Amino acid sequence: MRTLLKNGRIITATDDYRADVLIDGEVIAAIGNALTVTADKEIDATGLLVMPGGVDPHVHLDMPFMGTFSSDNYETGTRAALFGGTTTVIDFVLQKQGNSLKAALDEWNSRANGTAVGDYSFHMAVTDFNDNTKGEIQGIIEKEGITSFKTFMAYKGALMIDDRQMVGLMQEVKKQGGLINVHATNGDMIDYLVARHKAEGKLSPLYHYLSQPEVTEAEASARFADMAHYTGCPGYIVHLTCEGALNAVRQATRRNQKVFVETCIQYLLLDASLYEKDFEGAKWVMSPPLRQPKDQATLWAGINQGLVNVVATDHCPFKWEQKLMGQHDFSKIPNGHPAIENRMELLFSEGVNKGKITLNKYVEVASTNAAKIFGMFPRKGTIAVGSDADIILFDPQEKHTLSASTHHMNVDYSAYEGWEVTGKVKTVLLRGQVAIDNNQCHVEKGYGKFIKRNKVEGKI
Length: 460
Ligand code: URP
Ligand code: ZN
Ligand code: ZN
Fold this sequence. Notes:
The protein has 13 helices and 19 strands.
C-alpha cells in the first residue's frame, strides 16, 4: 500500500518546507517537490501542517494506584491519544516491592498486548532496588528494549526509594547504557506536611497543594542532579513544575551536566488557584500540584532556553466517582488528571498561536526530543525517509472547544472544559495507516505496537 501526501507544509524540529511525502507500507519512502509517483491513495494536505506524530513519554493507562485504577485502559487511552495527534506513548511498569521487574512487566504486557490502538513503550519503575533487581537491569534493556528506569523520591511507603537505592540503581543503569527518570519531590517532607494538615483537620484539596510546596521539588531535583552527576548516569526529571526545581537543573548546567527535563501541559497552562474551588479542585489534584503564574512563565522560558526538553501529560485520569474517594480527606484523592488527547492542540494554541514558541520548537518538545532521549529516533519523532509514517495533518486555523462531551478519554470531566482552542488535528497516520480522519478512528484495538527502544545516547 502506497500513500501520497500532497501539497503539505512539512514541519520538523529543524525544517519548514513544502513537499510531497510518499509512504510505502509503514514507512516514509520519499520526500520531494511535486513527486510524480503512483500511489494507491492520495491525500491532499493543502493548507495543512504536516508534522511528526506526537510522542507523549509520560502516561499511566490502566494503572493500579491509590486503591483504584486509572480510568483509561490501553484501548481507550491510546485511541484518545491518536485523536489528539499523539501516535506513541510511554507508560510506566510499576515493580511491586518484594517482587521482580519481570513479574511487573508480565502484568503490564497482559494489559497492553493486543489492546493498544496506538504505539506504546514502557519505562520500568524500580520501587525496590536490591541484588536481584540489579541482576535484571541488563536484560530489561537488552532483551526487552526498555532503556529507561523510573524512580520515585516520593509516595513514601508505596513507591519511594531512598538515596542509597537511587545511587546503586544509577550505577547499574549507567553501566548498562540506560537512563534514570525521576519523580523528584521530597517524600519525607511531604509525608510530614500531609500528616500535619490532617491532624489540624485541614482536609480539602487545597491542602494537597499546601503539602507539596515548591521547596519539596527544588530540594529533590537538586539532590537528584547531584547523584546523577556523581554517578555519571543520564537523568530525566519528569513533570517538573516550578522555578526552584528548574533553577536546580540550571545550576547543574554550570558544571556542564545535562539533566533532561519534562514538564507537562497543565503546568504551563493551569495554576494553583483551581484548588480554591472547594472539592471541585480534586479534578486537578496531581503530584506535584499546579503552581503559580511565575512558575508558568519560568517553564515557557525554560523551553526556549533549551532547559525544558519535553512537554508531556502525565495522563492519569480518574472518573469523578473515583475522585470522591477523597471527599473527606485530600490524601485519598487519586492523584492525576486527563490530558492525553488535549496536549498537542493546547500546546499549539497556547504556545505557537500565542507566540510563545516557534513551530519548530513545538515539534521538538511535543515529539522529537522524547523520541531522541528515549531511544526511538529517527524511527519516531520526525518526518524523514525511513522513519515510521507517523504523521499528523494539522489545520492551524480551525477553532474548536474542548469538552468532556466530545472527548474520547474514558473520564467524565475535562480538565479544560470550555477552553477555546485554535488549531485542530484533522488526519493522523500511524505506520502508514490512516488512523484518524473526519473525527473517526479507522484502526482497531490491537493495531498499536510495542516499540522496543535503543540504548540511550545521552544527547539531543
Ligand atoms: O498525580 C500524578 N502525577 N499521578 C500519577 C503518578 C505520578 O506521580 O506520576
Ligand atoms: Zn510522578
Ligand atoms: Zn506520572
